[in-house]
Amino acid sequence: MLTPEMLKGHLDAIVLAALEAGPAHGYAIIETIKQRSAGTFDLPEGTVYPALHRLEQAGLLSSAWTTPPSGRKRRVYSLTRTGTAALGERRKAWGRFSQAVDTALGPVLGGGRA
Amino acid sequence: MLTPEMLKGHLDAIVLAALEAGPAHGYAIIETIKQRSAGTFDLPEGTVYPALHRLEQAGLLSSAWTTPPSGRKRRVYSLTRTGTAALGERRKAWGRFSQAVDTALGPVLGGGRA
DNA sequence: GCTCTACACCTAGTTATGCTAGGTATGGAA
DNA sequence: TTCCATACCTAGCATAACTAGGTGTAGAGC
Q1: How high is the pLDDT of residue B69?
Q2: Is strand C in 7 Å reach of the CB of A46?
Q3: What Pfam families does the database record attribute to this sequence (chains A, B) (predicted)?
Q4: To probe the interface with B, which of A42, A98, A102, A103 has the most B CB atoms within 10 Å?
Q5: DSSP codes, A33-90
Q6: Residues of chain B with pLDDT > 70: what percent?
Q7: Across the strands, what pairs with B64?
């Protein structure tokens, strides 16, 4: 069973990674994350929007309101230079963390990963 | 940088795994985890003891006080049958979770793992 | 015209849990 | 007799994902 707590401390990296390919608005980011994780991370808006605000306030993202011809207002987020650097850091941190858990969990013996 | 939040939701599995090889007391469990994670998880007692109590209350661990000839009292924890089953579940959950993060983080391109 | 769904954003408050900081006590070494 | 490693405990803090509610637009179906 995947609990919400498992995501703690890892969401920022995932959001930043979703913006690496280019700017996007909140709703689209949620979709991207859902698809890239093969449906595993179907994040509620109440999770993603506050995260975006946090990341912008931290200077890792910048945002701009846009009104496409269709009519609906959207807030489009982009990675800042700091954000791109942070993404690299977070990826490294994830690598170290996941490897440590892998070894701490011990002999999986053909369990999960190749 | 590895933040404490990253561990949230994963600690239980790590503690259970540390007891898979056999019963042990709290202090030894901390040492085991430190060694198995190559020093990455140097957990404070205030993290591990409450976790042990939680797991015992949940029926995944059982404990017994022992007084070895040296003199100091120790509380030795063992995996219950439920705990062993739970460990299997947690390992599977970790596998699914970490794989989802791996893909969500996207092209690491020779970054962290083999 | 009216309802319903999908899109698109927001926030106050809850909850879970790892950690900080403090405490108790034994035994051996300096 | 002072200090450190061992060995246990707990109250309270901090963080962050989530719940549950809200606003408003656009298009489809009746």
Answers
A1: 73
A2: yes
A3: PadR
A4: A98
A5: HHHHTTTS----HHHHHHHHHHHHHTTSEEEEEE--TT---EEEEEE-HHHHHHHHHH
A6: 91
A7: B76
Record: contact A106-B20, CB cut-off 8 A: yes
Q: Give the residue among A47, A14, A105, A94 at the shortest CA–CA distance from B10.
A: A105
Give the pLDDT confidence of A86-95 residue by residue, as tens digits: 999 999 999 9
Measured torsion, CA atoms of residues A88, A89, A90, A91, in degrees rounded to the nearest 10: 50
The verdict on a CB contact (< 8 Å) between B14 and A113 is no
B6/A97 CB distance under 8 A = yes
- How far does B52 lie from chain A, in Å, by closest CA? 16
Residues B94-108: what's their mean pLDDT? 91
Segment A53-68 mean pLDDT: 95
Q: What is the CATH number of domain A13-104?
A: 1.10.10.10
Cβ atoms within 10 Å, residue A15: 28
Inform me whether the pLDDT recorded for B107 exceeds 60. yes
Q: Which amino acid is at A77?
A: Y
The conformation of residue B114, written as its DSSP 8-state character, comes to: -
pLDDT at residue number A108? 57
Annotation: CATH topology of B25-97: Arc Repressor Mutant, subunit A (1.10.10)
Q: Which two tokens stand for residue B81?
A: 């049958």
